[in-house]
Write a structure and sequence with these properties.
The protein is built from 13 helices and no strands. With about 325 residues, it is an all-alpha fold.
Length: about 325
């Protein structure tokens, strides 16, 4: 009799997880990637629509320098309330272990240092790319439109990210660098990329998320640089198995731009000057020089991190 019971227990099927143990999308069999795209759409509409309406009613269609402090506050609150808050809310629909899913553990300190070189060199390379892109011949009507749009975007960016004193620079770094780095990384390299990883190879998920990140900013002139930056950030988070590494790299990128504006170096390539005044040969040499720095820093980053396929955190955090 006892032997019969033992055999019955051994042959009994594994218990099916109770509904309360499953996440929302698991209970209703919703593909994670589809859910992530839906959240991106909701956040995009909310951020662009509500943010634009608030700015319009407070400062009109053409806010001037006198409105800059208010615009910075609106920008910071919009990031926190319309990007980060929805991300943290909806992440619980995807997983019952948000901390593991988002990869919120703190890694080796070296993984925070190496992206400084990676981001800095990548920025210089992308500046060279932007020069070549600006030299592509366009029909006069389109060229005029492009120049007007670039001037408008540049004017607004310099007004928002520019500073004239050290205290103001620190405040600008908080608003333009720190808050967007946290909010956007939680949405893109956190919720979105991790959801895509359930359907794609992690590197493919990083590439796709980077492309979406580039398009999300609604600036066709900077789509390629932003997409490349997004792919690099996704690679860092994937390889380090920590979202904080991509948050740090995103912060370095934005903070460097704020500091460059403060010192009136925003149009310059370090060590070469204004790229608009450089010859093709000098530009290519500059691209190669910083490309070597980027490659070396990235290879060393890969050397001290575990390949994704071998990392025990990958499969566990997706449960």
């Amino acid at each position: 009799m006892d032997d019969h019971n033992v055999q019955a227990e051994q042959l009994a099927p594994a218990s099916v997880p109770e509904p309360l143990q499953l996440s929302f999308i698991e209970r209703y069999n919703i593909p994670p990637a589809l859910f992530a795209i839906l959240i991106l759409f909701i956040v995009f509409v909310g951020y662009q629509l509500i943010g634009s309406v608030v700015v319009y009613f407070l400062y009109g269609l053409d806010p001037g320098p006198e409105s800059v402090q208010g615009l910075r506050i609106v920008t910071a609150l919009s990031q926190l309330l319309l990007i980060l808050a929805p991300t943290l809310f909806f992440i619980r629909f995807i997983t019952r272990k948000p901390k593991e899913f988002l990869r919120l553990h703190v890694p080796d300190i070296r993984l925070f240092v190496l992206p400084i070189a990676g981001i800095f060199s990548l920025q210089q390379m992308l500046q060279v790319y932007m020069v070549f892109q600006s030299r592509i011949p366009l029909p006069p009507e389109i060229q005029q439109f492009v120049e007007q749009m670039n001037e408008l975007i540049e004017k607004f960016t310099k007004m928002l990210a520019g500073s004239s004193s050290v205290p103001e620079l620190f405040w600008v770094i908080v608003v333009i660098a720190l808050i967007p780095a946290v909010c956007e990384e939680f949405l893109f390299r956190g919720l979105t990329q991790r959801s895509f990883e359930r359907h794609l190879h992690p590197l493919q998920a990083a590439i796709l998320t980077g492309i979406i990140f580039g398009a999300y900013h609604l600036n066709p002139f900077t789509f390629v640089p932003l997409a490349v930056l997004g792919i690099y950030l996704g690679f860092l988070a994937m390889r380090a198995q920590s979202l904080w590494v991509s948050v740090a790299a995103h912060f370095y990128n934005n903070a460097y731009a704020c500091v460059a504006l403060y010192f009136h170096m925003d149009d310059d390539i370090v060590g070469a000057g204004n790229p608009e005044h450089l010859s093709v040969g000098t530009l290519l040499l500059t691209f190669w020089f910083f490309g070597v720095i980027f490659l070396v820093s990235t290879l060393y980053f890969m050397r001290i991190t575990m390949p994704v396929e071998e990392s025990p955190a990958v499969n566990e955090s997706l449960e």
